[in-house]
Amino acid sequence: AESATVNTSIVTLTRFLTEEQAKFKEATGDFTLLCHALQFSFKAISYYIRRATLVNLTGLAGTSNTTGDDQKKLDVIGNDIFVEAMRSSGKCALVVSEEEEEVIFFKDKTNARYAVACDPIDGSSNLDAGVSVGTIFGIHKLAEGSTGTKEDILKPGSELLAAGFTMYGASAQLVITMKGGTVNGFTLDNSFGEFILTHPNMKIPKSRAIYSVNEGNSLYWEETTKDYFNSLKFAQEDGKPYSSRYIGSMVADAYRTLLYGGIFAYPADKKSPKGKLRILYECAPMAMVFENAGGQAVDSKMNRMMEVVPEHIHDRAGIFMGSHDEVEKVKKFYKQ
Length: 336
Ligand code: AHG
Ligand code: MN
Ligand code: MN
Ligand code: MN
Prior knowledge:
Layout: H1 13-23, H2 30-51, E1 60-64, E2 70-72, H3 73-89, E3 92-97, E4 104-105, E5 114-122, E6 134-141, E7 162-168, E8 172-178, E9 183-189, E10 194-199, E11 210-212, H4 223-231, E12 243-244, H5 250-260, E13 263-266, H6 279-292, E14 296-298, E15 319-322, H7 324-335
Parallel strand pairs: 3-5, 11-12, 11-13
Antiparallel strand pairs: 1-2, 3-4, 5-6, 6-7, 7-8, 8-9, 9-10, 13-15, 14-15
């Protein structure tokens, strides 16, 4: 008999990873356990964000992090949730977090084979306004024989085993991709407490006339950057200019760009000569998602973002990412 409306074969994240394991070389089950800990941290962070206004979790913590950001109370809580989830998974040897000055090593976890980089809450300046924020993560495998050193994480995006991000918006979304794989999107079903596969095999539209950048920085931009963004405001081939969309949470701007297409940028400028966004836990994971979805990501020198090697854990880069043709256009513009 046909049951028309109820899906009785729901693909949860756990089911997806189990089925994926067959195809994917990480067949030990350790990767699935690590992902379990990850998804628990996402649920917990999402929960506290949604309750923040009710339980006095809005506002500043009164401290700042290594890259100079004022920490919000939720930045600190999100970080603690994330780090504890990684520690207790037993599968993570070390963590780099935006909110931690140094690498955290879990030396007692001798079976741990993974190194994880994270931005526990991306877009935290938007938190108190209830605007979408999210968590960004990148997973590396330890080098053969290594018990976990800084070198296991100071790697380019091209060596990432998996990466992705969540967006805590009207619903919690999770986007994840594995090396050489497709990009898959999940939605948290609060009543099941599970991430459900809702966006299989995500592909970014090849082009779209939407640009996303903090235009308030144009005072500090290089001439080429000014010229490029100005060029989008004139009639294009179809007679229309680009639309502007900027949320100010990379996860939300990235999620929209992934679904609708367009270009997202945070260029290096005179105020931030190395860019603002950080390579290990912002730029590289996003670059992997965008490339695996058929898009592109480059730094301000038009180098492929996936090949940018950080020297220090909190190093930054300028970034342009989005639809294939939109990034192609940026590259051509900067090469002139
Ligand atoms: P975070 O909240 O993790 O420190 O990241 C902030 C980032 C990113 O979310 C966003 O794209 C960008 O900063 C916004 O910066 P501006 O406010 O300078 O536009
Ligand atoms: Mn920050
Ligand atoms: Mn961030
Ligand atoms: Mn952050």
